[in-house]
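2024-03-11 09:14:02 INFO worker-7 job=invfold-0412 stage=load source=structure_tokens
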């Protein structure tokens, strides 16, 4: 039964990823004042959606992530959260890496759907502990990122704060170690590539270049999910 559940989860994630271009086409473009005046305007969402084989790429990445999650986490309730969040996060990573924007019309409905899933799990199982942990992690991680945004809004967008709530809920449902490792790994994923490039090219200005944080947050969350209990027993 478990292999069938895992295959179904992979198929659902792939289907969700394949819908990414259609979602992008329906998004209204952000107003011009949503990006710094000294930077070029980001490409339109519809233009991103027209990239060749984008749907296939998003589907493949989503399916791979869920397959790894099923292998490591099993086919319990946690996998349902991962299946729901993965296509959204893969799409957001793609968009943020090209526009430095995390559209709230994607982040907020996905977070709401995850909250409904948590409430549904509570209703079905009657077990409140793990669901409450997920809720606490969601609030805690969002609050942490809100504080970072509050003290340095020039270096972090509010989209990262919204994304932190989504990731915190999923990581919290998996476990406390997953939350801590996932949150810490995000900063390593963001900083280490820039540090390596700066050292290789002997150019410290690389460290000061603005970079989208969403992809690093999502990659860090994946590290937390797959390796959290191993790295932080």
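2024-03-11 09:14:09 INFO worker-7 stage=emit residues=233
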């Amino acid at each position: 039964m478990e292999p069938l559940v895992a295959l179904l989860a992979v198929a659902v994630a792939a289907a969700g990823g394949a819908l990414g271009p259609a979602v992008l086409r329906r998004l209204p473009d952000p107003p011009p004042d949503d990006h710094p005046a000294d930077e070029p305007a980001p490409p339109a969402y519809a233009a991103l959606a027209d990239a060749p084989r984008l749907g296939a790429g998003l589907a493949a990445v989503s399916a791979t992530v869920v397959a790894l999650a099923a292998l490591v986490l099993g086919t319990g309730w946690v996998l349902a959260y991962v299946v729901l969040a993965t296509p959204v996060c893969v799409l957001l990573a793609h968009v943020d890496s090209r526009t430095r924007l995390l559209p709230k019309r994607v982040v907020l409905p996905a977070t709401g759907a995850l909250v409904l899933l948590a409430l549904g799990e509570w209703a079905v199982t009657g077990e409140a502990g793990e669901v409450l942990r997920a809720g606490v992690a969601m609030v805690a991680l969002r609050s942490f990122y809100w504080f970072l945004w509050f003290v340095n809004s020039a270096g972090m967008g509010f989209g990262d704060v919204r994304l932190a709530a989504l990731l915190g809920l999923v990581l919290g449902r998996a476990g406390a170690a997953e939350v801590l490792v996932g949150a810490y790994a995000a900063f390593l994923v963001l900083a280490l590539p820039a540090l390596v490039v700066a050292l290789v090219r002997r150019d410290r200005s690389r460290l000061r270049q603005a970079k989208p944080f969403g992809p690093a947050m999502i990659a860090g969350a994946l590290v937390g999910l797959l390796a959290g209990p191993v790295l932080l027993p």
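2024-03-11 09:14:09 INFO worker-7 stage=report msg="The longest helix spans residues 176-201."
2024-03-11 09:14:10 INFO worker-7 job finished
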